[in-house]
Structures are given as C-alpha cells and as structure tokens.
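Q: I'm building a small set of examples for a reading group on sequence design. Run inverse folding on the following structure and report the sequence directly after it, with nothing in between.
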C-alpha cells in the first residue's frame, strides 16, 4: 500500500511535466525519498535546497530556521506520518519543528502538538531514540521547565555522547537552573567535539553569565561572520546587539539590531532590541513603532512589559494598561500550554501590580530554578513589598561574582542600590547606583531616571579628610 500511495503522489505532482530524478537519499525530508525533481534541460545544475530541507538541517543541528522553512518542514512531516504512522524519525522531526516554530512566534500553542509528536516517536521507538529525547529537552527549555530539560538532555547525551547538538540544550538547561559551573563544563566538552558559528554563539552566552563581556562579544562577532544562512546570522547579531546595549554602546547595539532585522524580518527579538535602544536614545516615537512591530511578529510578554513601561515614562497610562493587559493574556496562554512565564509576571506585579503576589510567585520560581535572574526579581519584589532585609540577601546573590561568575547587569545593580538606600546604607547604595549608571546610563526609561534621582538624594560622599600619620611612623 505504501508503494501505491507514493506512486499516486508522484504522478499527481508530476503529471504533464518531464522530470528526471536526480537524487534519492534514505531519510530525506521529502515524502517517499524523492529529494528534488527538475526539468531535463536544467539537470546539469544542482537544485537549491528547498526551505523545508534547510529547516530540517537547521532543526537537526540546533541553529535558527526561517518561519517559511519551518512551515514547509511541518507540512512535509505531517504528510509523512499520515502515510507511515510508525515512522519514529518523522514524528521526532515534526515535534522539533513545532518547538522551533512556537519559540520563533512566541506561540505556546505549538508546544502541546510538539509534545504529542515527540512522545509518539518515543512510543514507536522506545529504545535509543536520541532525536526524540533531544526534542523533549528543547521543548522543556522552551517551556522554561529546565529540570525536565536537564533530565531529557542528559538521557540523550548518555545514548550518544558525541552528538554535539545535544550539548547546547544542556547548556541552556543548566543556565536556567543556575548551575553555571555545569554549563561551563558542558561547553568545554562541546568545544572539544565541534567548532563553528553555533558553538561560538553558545559559548558567548556562557561567557556573558561569567562576566566575560569582551569574550562574549568577540565570540558573537565570529559567529555572525561565519554563519551560513541569513536567519542564523541575524540571530547572532541580535545577541551581539543585546550585549552592546548592556554595555551602554547604543549606536553599536542599534546597528546590530537593524542588520538583524534586514536579514530576517521575522526576528522579533531584534525588533524589540531596536525599540529598547531607540528609547534609550530618546527617539521614543520610533521606539514605540519598533516595539509594535516586534509584538506583531513575536508577542512575547517581556516586550509587552517593556513597551508598557515606555508608555508610562511618556505619561501615557492608558496605552501602558493596554500593553500590560496583553502581557497578562500571553502569560495565561503560556500557562495553558504548559509554559512558565512566572518570572516576567513576577517582575510586572512587583512594579505595576501586587508586590506581595509577586513575592509569592517568585518564591515558587526560585524553588524551581535558583538562577541569578530569579534572585534579582525576588529581591526587588521583596523590596517593593517592604521586606528590605530579606531583599538584600537575594540582591547579594544576584550580584555576587559566584556562582554565575560575575555577570554585570545595570538593572541588578540598580535594584541592589535601591534596597541598600532603603536600609540606610548610603555608601553601598551610592556605589551600586553609580555602577548601574556607569554600565548603561539609560538601561530603562522608568528606572534609569529613578537611579539618578536616588543618587542626587544621597548626595556626595562625606569628606572625612586624610587621617594624620603618627609622628613616630617611619
């Protein structure tokens, strides 16, 4: 029956056209093993890979894929599993493509479909199904269930220790759990197996977490230069832009973000980066436009929060409430699909909602994943709820050199400085607020002005003079 079905599909697609089969590869993305069919007069020229074939290669190697390519790959694999329901590989590829499309679109509705496809692959082939295990690790990372991602990733790695594409999944899982030393060890193993743009980009994230900003920037520059596909280069440029923004290099950041959008118009993170940077440069009308474009292609709750805060800074409370409503809606949709957006909701509640509710939510988040970013958010929520002593303990965790290695973040330093001011520790508060503004003087349209106002209120440090030396000292 399978052969009859394949013949029928081939005849329908090729009726009335003279074609020559130029390639047939076992396990190809195209149903029935046919890779490309070309008119006879063009047979001397190799065909360019289809978007779906490129997406298959990207999904299998852990690099970004285009949205059209993912759509084509999903349709091809859906056809494949309808024709061959026990094709474990096609089920696993389908699940991985759903994960990537959901991540690119910030649409968690794809995640239950991904889970169904990946678990079907495992049920069809329960033994040595590395591709399905890796797909479940990627899905868990996308849902921010980093414990599950670690479990699936380690199981996949145990089956095939030399499969390099599994290592980035584990690095993401360890980083999400705050296990930064494990992330570095995993990166060291990865670089011993593989080199190239995808590995350099992954290394940059680990370097950034350890405070090695220059190393991270250099790795991303090399990754972007070596990327083969525009969508891949755009992803690395977006990350380079974020690093530049964190350092306060706004012109460099904007250049990276704009080039990323030119290469990949569906790059929502780069559009949001444009909005963030334009707002910092005072070009607020353009910033709002960039944020709206980002939300149109990737309605991420974080972007809604940032645009809402920009509206607040401009005295536009109604527009801000509209964006905050979008944030709540997207968080609800994520939860319904098994994805965790508790961190961004906790940040929102701390500043714009109920700080005590934020504390409860972020305490639960901290128990699940004691990462630096969660420590910072919980510290700020506790401060906003009036518990400054406990807030400082978490702020110290978020800004100390270990375990993350010393990542410098202007917002984290600002939070610590404000908490120290509330505890009447003017010297420490002045030092950390100054550090925040030195790292990036315009790190937030709402909080950077608050940091400057707090510094003004603290005033200059007291001039205690130079202590006199004992006359008998040598």
């Amino acid at each position: 029956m399978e052969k009859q079905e394949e013949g029928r599909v081939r005849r329908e697609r090729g009726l009335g056209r003279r074609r020559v089969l130029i390639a047939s590869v076992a396990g190809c993305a195209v149903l029935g093993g046919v890779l490309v069919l070309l008119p006879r007069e063009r047979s001397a020229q190799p065909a360019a890979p289809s978007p779906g074939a490129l997406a298959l290669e990207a999904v299998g190697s852990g690099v970004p894929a285009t949205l059209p390519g993912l759509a084509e790959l999903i349709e091809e694999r859906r056809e494949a599993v309808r024709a061959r329901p026990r094709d474990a590989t096609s089920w696993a590829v389908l699940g991985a493509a759903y994960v990537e499309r959901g991540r690119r679109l910030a649409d968690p509705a794809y995640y239950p479909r991904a889970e169904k496809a990946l678990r079907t692959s495992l049920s069809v082939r329960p033994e040595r199904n590395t591709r399905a295990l890796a797909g479940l690790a990627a899905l868990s990372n996308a849902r921010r269930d980093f414990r599950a991602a670690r479990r699936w990733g380690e199981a996949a790695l145990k089956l095939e220790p030399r499969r390099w594409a599994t290592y980035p999944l584990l690095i993401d899982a360890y980083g999400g759990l705050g296990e930064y030393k494990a992330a570095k060890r995993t990166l060291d193993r990865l670089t011993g197996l593989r080199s190239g743009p995808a590995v350099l980009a992954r290394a940059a994230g680990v370097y950034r977490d350890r405070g090695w900003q220059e190393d991270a920037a250099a790795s991303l520059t090399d990754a972007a230069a070596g990327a083969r596909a525009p969508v891949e280069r755009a992803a690395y440029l977006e990350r380079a832009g974020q690093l530049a923004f964190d350092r306060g290099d706004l012109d460099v950041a904007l250049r990276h973000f704009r080039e990323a959008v030119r290469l990949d118009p569906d790059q929502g993170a780069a559009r949001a980066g444009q909005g963030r940077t334009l707002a910092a440069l005072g070009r607020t009308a353009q910033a709002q436009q960039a944020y709206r474009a980002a939300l149109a292609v990737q309605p991420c709750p974080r972007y809604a929060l940032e645009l809402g805060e920009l509206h607040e800074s401009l005295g536009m409370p109604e527009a801000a409430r509209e964006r905050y409503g979008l944030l709540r809606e997207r968080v609800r949709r994520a939860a319904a699909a098994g994805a965790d957006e508790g961190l961004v909701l906790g940040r929102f509640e701390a500043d714009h909602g109920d700080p005590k509710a934020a504390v409860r939510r972020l305490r639960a988040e901290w128990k699940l994943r004691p990462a630096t970013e969660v420590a910072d958010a919980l510290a700020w929520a506790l401060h906003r709820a009036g518990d400054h002593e406990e807030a400082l303990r978490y702020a110290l965790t978020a800004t100390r050199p270990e375990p993350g290695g010393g990542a410098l973040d202007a917002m984290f330093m600002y939070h610590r400085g404000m908490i120290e001011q509330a505890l009447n520790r003017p010297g420490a508060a002045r030092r950390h607020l100054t550090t925040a503004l030195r790292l990036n003087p315009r790190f937030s349209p709402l909080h950077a002005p608050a940091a400057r106002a707090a510094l003004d209120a603290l005033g200059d440090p007291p001039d205690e003079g130079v202590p006199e030396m004992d006359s008998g000292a040598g």
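Residues 247 and 439 are 5 Å apart (CA to CA).
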